[in-house]
Amino acid sequence: MDEVQGKDRLYVFNQEAIDSIREAKAWLKDPKYFKRVKISPSASIKMMSHCQSGVEKGIRNNGVPVEVMGLLLGHPDHEDPHAFIISDTQALPIEGFETSVVADDQEVINYQISLGEANELTRKDLFCGWYHSHPFDLDGTNHCYLSKTDVTTQTLWQNQEDNHGNPWLAIVVDPQLSLAKSSPEIRAFRVYPAGYTPPKNQTPDGVVVADAKVAIERWGACWDNYYLLEVSYFMSQLAHNTLNTFRDKFMWMNALTTNPMSEPEKRKDLLDLITKANKEAKASTGSGMGVFQQAFAQSSKEEDESGGKPSSVSQSGVDVAVQHCQASIGYLTKNIAFGNGHLNTSETSSKDAKAVDMKEN
């Protein structure tokens, strides 16, 4: 219950407590005051959708993804003052290439002012940061970092807003890698104030490196001008229950469209069960027979001695057989319903056999 209340409380806006935090301006005394960022489902989905649209639009028009930009709505967490709560985002009509996304056009500035005025009529949250995308080539590395242009932009905004009691955050999204990994690649940053020198060779994630080239390759040329914040996501208990309902009622087809034997956890459970059964079989006779040979060889004798109740060896063999049959039936059903009707278990069987031999030896 405490965990549920902890999630729901992030939707509570305590005006008095937040005003007190803004008036104290504790972040002006600590260069790394903020440690965490908590992002709502609405904010994360809107950021990802906007950034992905830039990729699709750029490729469609010019063959090259374009960077996009937007603003963050939120406030400091009144129960965890070292954290931002990002409740929503609003896209800006800005596009660019590589490191050239800059919000310095007068039309864009007027658009931001209009957005802010409209938000004051309907929202309690203020603009507390900005986000933009780095839709660079998919090469397996994360492209969430601040470029020289990004550091300049964040520094200007942060100096202005922080001094007015409104701490400012920068978020970078890697839409290409997010799509490849099927999970959001989002990083949050703040720049160091003027006059502050971070520990020597310490990268934004707190790791100390001996070679500056390593830091530049991962974090850009301005790697020692900013630091990384921990990003997490939250949703209300109502939203959590709704998703569970959708999963239980409408995701039943997953049982037919996936192969249980290909899931690492399922394969591990089955291999552990086979290994356990083999050990029980060998321990009961001292012979080298496996579980199935032992189970069938003594099944009649055990049933006579136990009044029909199977021994642990026999039961283990049954458990292994049942799990394997269930998995094979599910795999066969999937192939008949959605595939070409052919069942290829040679590779799976070979891997299972090798894994059991390794665990036994």
Q: Give me the oligomer status.
A: single chain
- SSE run: HHEHEEHEHEHEHEHHHHHH
Strand ordering within the main sheet: 1-3-2-4-5-6-7
Binned strand content? 15-25%
Low-confidence stretches: 1-5, 345-353
Quick one: biggest sheet? 7 strands, mixed, barrel
Number of helices: 13
Average of pLDDT: 80
The number of E-state strands comes to 7
Characterize the overall form: elongated
Distance between the termini: 46 Å
Overall SS class = alpha/beta
Helicity, as a percent range:
40-55%
Molecular structure report:
- By secondary structure, the chain is of the alpha/beta class.
- 51% of the residues lie in helices and 15% in strands.
- The chain contains 13 helices and seven strands.
- It has a seven-stranded mixed β-barrel, surrounded by four helices.
- Helix 10 packs across helix 13 and helix 11 packs across helix 12.
- The longest helix has 27 residues.
- 27% of the residues are buried.
- The N terminus is likely disordered.
Structure summary:
The protein has 13 helices and 7 strands.
Secondary-structure blueprint:
Blueprint: H1 2-8, H2 15-24, E1 36-39, H3 41-61, E2 67-76, E3 83-96, H4 106-122, E4 126-133, H5 148-163, E5 169-173, H6 175-181, E6 186-191, H7 212-219, E7 226-233, H8 237-250, H9 254-257, H10 264-285, H11 291-306, H12 312-338, H13 346-360
Parallel strand pairs: 1-3, 1-7, 4-5
Antiparallel strand pairs: 2-3, 2-4, 5-6, 6-7
